[in-house]
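On clarity, I found the account of how folds are encoded harder to follow than it need be. Since the whole study asks how a given chain folds, the encoding of that fold should be made plain. For illustration, here is how one protein appears when written out as sequence plus structure tokens:
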Amino acid sequence: MTEQASPLERSLNLTVNLAAVHSEVESRLKRLSRTVRMDGFRPGKVPMRMVQGQYGHQVMQEVLGDAAQTVFSNAVREQNLRVAGTPSFETTETGQVNGEYAFKATFEVFPDITPGDISSAEIERPQVEVGPADVDRTLEILRKQRTRWETAARAAQVGDRVRMDFKGFKDGVAFDGGTGENQLLVLGSGQFLPEFEQALPGASAGESRAFDLSFPADYHAKELAGQAVRFEVLVHEVQQPVLPELDADFARSLGIESGDVAQMRIEIQGNLEREAKKRVQARLKDQVMQAILSATTVQLPHQLVSMEIERLRETARQDWKNRTGQDTSGIELPANLFEEQARRRVSLGLILTELVQREKLEARPEQVRTLLEEQAQSYEQPEEMVRWYYEDPERLREVESVVLEDNVVSWALTRAKVSDRQLPFQELIGQAG
């Protein structure tokens, strides 16, 4: 009989046949005795009573656990219960009676979900057109990334790079971290404090300059925060930037084997259009998911939220380790840092699962193939990238998940209030102004 302790928590009183348990324990101990090693005995010759004494309790617990899980699985299948998370087992007050081991299984079930009505939700759909000016801006970025520096026989100006020695003094005494030799600094890049960089335009090679400045009140080195200091700088060399020409060599450096500049522009425009499409879809997806969440009430199984919190914790630890190289195994991150995000993710997962089933929005094989081929166009060998995904079911499931969410977005756009808005490409990618 199923007991209901709360809206999602259930418990079942179950029994396991002890005769079957003891028989399985004996069978496992016999198999174990063939390989177990103990001092003074050859392998396979250890007396059964010693094997029983050494391993009997452990094997009994394993067999009881397996039997309890089997009985539990059969019971929930018979009662058509959808278990969320892992059940906990505990011995009941009756314990072992009449050749039966009685125990209680406590667990949570998935909630019944009715996706809410999103017909009143307002969704803004960006309309973006990639034009020649966007291609020009991208080419300028690519040129700057390939900047080479050559010595300039003139005074430094903003945008130049200077090679210099510097030393900082606080109250007339050099301070730690305030000294550098043959340091390279692009003026106006923000590598150094603004006052430092602003003091160097107009300086020529071989020239020394001294100037005062104050560190910001929130400077990372607490002993210098808000402090007034003096710097002495010796400029060794002034270098001016030289950008590559937009010619055949530049096109070939971007993978255009023919060196055709027109073809280069066509490919860059294609890449930008794919990026625009991806970002528009991301904006739509965010709005749709929020609309679905706002319209649907769902009770969350505590175990699923806890499991998601732990996944987010581990991801945060791994990200930090990848960025810093530090061992994060001992870092304890409070659960409340991740609870809101975890609840949102679990809620969406449950709602979308129900929605996909109700509306038949599963990812179709041809959709997965189309998305893969589209994404692969930014690689030198698109067909190899597509093959790489199909070689691993786990990688393919990631793509199927994206297609499934895209299907949900398409479904939502036919039901919500959608308005189109023209948006410049630069604003879409966050580079407006």
Residues 157 and 201 are 5 Å apart (CA to CA). The domain at 122-132+261-428 is CATH 1.10.3120.10 (Trigger factor, domain 2). The longest strand covers residues 83-97. The two ends are 67 Å apart (CA to CA).
